[in-house]
Amino acid sequence: MSVKTRIKNCGIVPIAVLDRAEDAVPCGKALLAGGIDIMEITLRTSAAINSIGKVSKELPDICLGAGTVMTLDKCRLAVGAGAKFVVSPGFNRDIVEWCMKNDVVVVPGCVTPTEIMYALEYKINLVKFFPASMYGGLAGMKALTGPFPNIAFIPSGGISNKNLAEYITAPFVHAVGGSWMCAAQDISKGDFDKITAISSQTIDIVKKVREMISKK
Asked: Cα separations (Å) of 141 from 15, 68, 127, 202?
């Protein structure tokens, strides 16, 4: 099964910011226990690359990605450590071209028509929409599907279980990203049971929305 299909099937991309590499595997296990087999570890901390390596080695059932990838060097390090997909907050040609040459799924950040046209030049039809709440949320993405009907989005920013159902319902949303499932304070406290509980609630919302859609 392809990485994009696994992400779509799950519907959720939890974003984890890890200050300590030793928290990576417990966090991944907590997500799995809650029914989520996708994990994006952001490159915002010095522990990120080591964290990716640990999860890749110890939790092969997780489809692992690297987030906040802003340089080609970091991209190479993340993929070398085991990341199966790369997410960047904006469009970086060097990252995109390297990923495509090396058969790595890349999801560039695109929130404007110009950025989407850049993505389409490389036949990329799945993009990150961040920060979603600042760029019009669902209305913003829907407007962009007018001229770009084949584009799908992974929105993040300003989304939680409170408004998740609205996003999952939209046909142009491939999956929803966010850090609410593995909040920094829960990770720092070692409260991985809470991460599992929130993940389970999140997946239940996704399942209910999809069941409702299938019955229409």
From this structure: 21, 21, 11, 22
